[in-house]
Amino acid sequence: MASETQAHPPSADHGHDAHEHGHFGPEMWVIPEATGLVAEVNEKQRTTPGIFRIVFFAGAALTILGIVGFVLKAVTVGFSDHRAWGFYVAAFAFVFTLTASAPLAACAFRFTKSHWRRPLSRIAEIFSLVSIVNILLFIPALIALPDIGVMTESGEQMVRRSIWFQELVNPSGWLLAGMIGLSFCSVAILWLAALPDMAQSRAHVSGFRASLYGKLAGGWYGTKRQWQVQKGGLAILGALYFMMVVFVQFLVVSDFAMAMIPGWKDSILPPFYTVISFQGGLAAILLVAYVMRRWGGYRELIGQAPFWAASKVLLGLTLLHTYHLFAFFITYWYGRLEVEQAILNYLMFDSYLGLFWAQLFFTFFIPFPILVSNHARREGWGAPLAAVFILIGLMLWHIRIFAAAFAAAPAALGGLYYLPSNAFSFPALLLPPPAATFPDLWDIFMILGAVGIVLLVFRIGMMLLPPLSLWEMKEGSMYQRVDTLIRGRYLVLAKPE
Amino acid sequence: MQEGKVLPAAQVNRDLLRSIMETPQWFWPVVSILGLIVLAAAITVGIMINTGLGITGLNYKVVWGFFITNFVFWIGISHAGVMLSAILRLAKAEWRRPATRAAEVLTIFSLMTAMIMPIIHTGRPWRILYWAFPYDFARGIWPNIRTPLVWDPSAILTYLTSSTLFVILALVPDFAVLRDRTTGWPKIVYTMLAMGWEGNPRQWKLQIIAGVLLSALILPVFVSVHSIVSWDFGMAVAIKSWHSTVFAPYFVVGAVHSGVSAVVFAMILLRWAYGWQDYIRHEHIDALGRLLIVVATGWFYFLVMEIIFGIYGLEGDELAVRALQFLPGDHGVAYNVWMIIFVGITYFLPVILWLPKAWRRNLWIMSAACISVNVGMWLERYLLFVPGQANKQFQTFTWNDYLPQWPEALIVGATFAFVSMLMLLFSRVFPLVPLYDIKEGDILRTEIQVGRRNLTATFRED
Predict the structure, then answer these.
(1) Would you give the DSSP letter of residue A374?
(2) Which of A66, A99, A264, A391 is the most exposed place for a label (fewest CB within 10 A)?
(3) In this structure, what DSSP letter does residue A418 have?
């Protein structure tokens, strides 16, 4: 009998130690008072803290700057020389990367029934509104994209490599359709997820928001059937959205990066880009959540648990990012094929050496030690700090890949490098590697504008919709309590089907 | 989510130690049959060493066939252990508890089996010395450490060592239980293995910390092993269809796909064989089924990328291999038919079977789906490796195909018998469901009332 008791894991004792060491404290898991939650959040929304005003005006100013840069670039250079638009495409791809993947975080962690997601869900979903802007930003990028093939004066067909396989179809329509579909799907997710909150908030708001909520959530009464449809709909839309995100990202990175660089055939790039996008999306969500908690007055509603738990996911994504990079590098480097060595030289060792190392420091060497530290993660500042570095690094990544890709496509042939199309033999080599391209003033304006428009649209989204998923937080408060196990006080979490 | 009832510790001990304390009637006959198959394979290996590799279907063109396919397959199966044990432990997934031990042990045995395959494949097993020692001592000619073929054994041995440590660490509390329930020489052995375990708070704390640390440290090894195996092929530029940057993550995800499926099937078998219905419950199989849908879809995505970018280059010799893989032709082996079968049974059929909840909870359907995945994953490796070598090049003397012969089929088949036999023998001396993990889960389990329903809940530290 003695051995039976000996063989029990003394969870209580272990947990008691952990409790004394601060593993579980009120800051870690916040259990909001469900009854007053709607009124409280609406009140917070009404009284705008200074930080949100700064975000709004900074976003607006940067957006104007970006528009000015874009107009001047279009007027002075035009769209005929695709090389001039590399930085614009990089800025678009950066915004697209973050904002397309951010809503996925809400769907994914809802699917895994992670309790800590609850304060982050709406933040993630509001990024869907930015996806509408993605469509607008995408159109100039499509115009700047060189055609897959043209007929020369001598009657020869000149083509470049493409995932559209030299059929001389115009991929722009398909790409644009993908982007529009993605936006629709993400906005549908936002609407469906915010439906109960808008219905509940009708009584607490006035003016435009009351009218908006009335129109968008007029028929919601919270019946059992409505809840079933809402939850089922979110699951189906989430799965659909996941597939669409991965597919559109595959199209974007293949068409706008890989196909532009002569000889670049890299099957890991689309998955790599997807990993990067998940990493960036989560980093952006954590950064917004931290600003809301630290300066936005949401401290008592957003605990430390989302940061503690999400930072582990961010750590995993950071490691995956580096793993994919290494898998690409080692296969090319070891293979010793001339065409692949030329691409490595261009993107990593020669032309973009400095940018490559800067990006690697920002996406791995700096955030990794932060995210590994239990202290930094538990205190809540570790993940947002790492997120800042990651976002800077990802911006550099996009410049290194997309701006470099647009600069590498030979201008004389309008980006075409197969001669002729029926001689599918050898890819052209990138020899010698072209020099690194640098942004001009208009490019810098457009990059800043891309960041600005994200801030601006996100802030407008926060003003229009409850910035926290109220129904999810209320649901969460029902599924958790603090209880005693032998000698320690612990959090108890339920996970219903 | 948790559906079973909390059982008294004494009953947990009694139920889960039944495989050790009592010998079922079927046990020794089954082990004997499996042993005979392994013996037959060992004799075949002896014949092959004596006669030479000529008795296999391998030839001057297709030099990597069934043996190497089987090597990669078993390395893949070994990925279930860490996937289930380390990742789910770090993620604090409650439903992991009954699955971890079987997964970890399957890792060890499948790694051991995998390591045998290249040794058999050499045809001259003593030549494996050249992987570590100079093959000409007098002139000090060392093996080329820059080849993945040398990284491979290093990575696999590291993985085997760390996985073994992982299993032993988790077994220590269970050894103590066995020590207190046995007599004679088994007691002496279990006493030594228990290493003075008393179950005091300090020992538990150390055990838990060591488990978490090993979980975190073993993850990079887990990823690196199959990545390096993939680079055995991916680094080879001469064989078209092999040199692909996506191979590393593609192999890792594929390994998890086949490994977790194998664990699910093993769990269903154990549940049936030892009557562990209270421990390996439908909810566990259901959760693993949902995990498999995600893993399978990730794997399918990598497969599509591999194929698309194989064609994307539009290089003549690569297109020829792809034509061999996907199109009907006049070559001897209908790879395209096998390719359709492989994709169907590895992704579409199992995912369709896993989608409805009722089917995920039907053990027959789950068994069929998991077997289907593993047959498909074996085929996947075969269809990935062989057509590239068999591809017809410009000169006729570079043409050849590969038809496996009976020695290869017997040896490959016997590896399944070997792993099954080792698992059964293990279950005879050590518990295949961790006692302490099950008890910990029961202690941490409670309920929360929401409205009129009582929901199962868990105490959490963070």
Answers:
(1) H
(2) A391
(3) B
